[in-house]
Amino acid sequence: MSVRRLAMIAVLVIVVAMIWHWHKADGGAPQHAHAPTAVELTTVRSGAAPVQLSAVGNVVSPHTVNVRTQVSGTLKQTFFTEGDEVAAGAKLFQIDPAPYEATLAQARAQLAVDRASLAAARAQYERMKPLVDKDYVTSQEYDNARATADEGAARLLADRANVQTAEINLGYTLIRAPIAGRTGSIGARTGNLVASSDALPLVVLNEIDTVQIQFAIPQDQLPAVQQALAAGRLPVEVHGDDPQQLLASGHLVFVENAVDTSTGTVTLKAEVDNHEHKLWPGAFVSVSLTLSVQPDALLVPETAVQPGADGQYVFVVGDDHKAQLRTIVVDRQVGADVVVASGLRQGETIIARSPHNLQPGTDVISADAARAQAQERAARP
């Protein structure tokens, strides 16, 4: 055997020994060029899914009152602080009542004077009744006495109306809350002269324990709303920037009787409970109007659905643990899930979140199983 052949055999033995050593150091596990890709798996499930219309709406108070004075005068006292909640009938402002008290006293005095004058005129008239038949007084005198009594009665009615008007005006000097609600900015401060003709109200009251959400839907969705309304009350959910955070719930209370020709939309209003005051008049919110509930919808996470050239798709994982692309038809989104109209079956395993550039046919393993294997390898001596 030549020296060159012996050298080649020696090199081959060394290479085999090195491979055996690497194999032994790794616990005898075979080395793969491409390990399975760890992914988050989920199952296509069946469940109840509402059929909803979504829109952006704004919060409005169902009852807003611009509180103004009905009499002129000096603002003497304010009984609340800006932003306070007040009950219906609570005192808000006091206008100086002194001029109106004087006017009432004058009206009552005039009423007393004219009441006395009427009593005298009626007595004179009654005395003349038997005398006119005996020609002790002329017919003219009798007619004058009757006219004086009638005039006194009319003046008394006017005096009573003046007293009533003065009492009403005096009552207007104390301004009370016409509704329960939250106060806004105060339009005039103590010491200012106020009048009913002022441009700004003294304060604006907004009812906020119950509020309305005003929103619009396209006119082609109106028939579905009307059909659903015919079957019963339609629930409404209100969300803020976070679609998972429910701010309030209520029901639809109003559908506008005409389509807005400039936008092709119909205005709707929902009434919701707001005792926790999470909603504020003027705020923009997301509205979900439930028309019906589909009891056996196929649901998958919205994160599992990807856009593709042939439509939306998901990666389905079979018994061979390979990711296969499957084109699906999405009907609608419901919260964090989507309702699948076709392309999937209940119980199939899909990838909930597809890694970037995941290719069909790739071997995959659940993220939980991958972590378990890593912990097992780390525990080996």
Automatic annotation (TrEMBL):
Major site of localization recorded for this protein: membrane
Positions of the Multidrug resistance protein MdtA-like alpha-helical hairpin domain: 103-173
Alphabetized, the UniProt keywords read: Cell inner membrane, Cell membrane, Membrane, Transport
Q: Where is the Multidrug resistance protein MdtA-like beta-barrel domain?
A: 210-291
Which residue numbers delimit the Multidrug resistance protein MdtA-like C-terminal permuted SH3 domain? 296-351
Q: Where in the cell is it found?
A: Cell membrane
Pfam families associated with the record: Beta-barrel_RND (PF25944), BSH_RND (PF25917), HH_MFP_RND (PF25876), RND-MFP_C (PF25967)
Question: From the Swiss-Prot or TrEMBL record, what is one GO molecular function term?
Answer: efflux transmembrane transporter activity
Multidrug resistance protein MdtA-like barrel-sandwich hybrid domain: which residues?
Answer: 64-205
What is the official name of this protein in its record? Efflux RND transporter periplasmic adaptor subunit
Among NCBIfam families, the record links this protein to:
RND_mfp
Protein family according to the UniProt entry: Belongs to the membrane fusion protein (MFP) (TC 8.A.1) family.
Q: Which organism is it from?
A: Solimonas terrae
**Alphabetized InterPro entries for the sequence:** MdtA-like_b-barrel, MdtA-like_BSH, MdtA-like_C, MdtA-like_HH, RND_pump_MFP
Is Transit peptide found in the keyword set? no
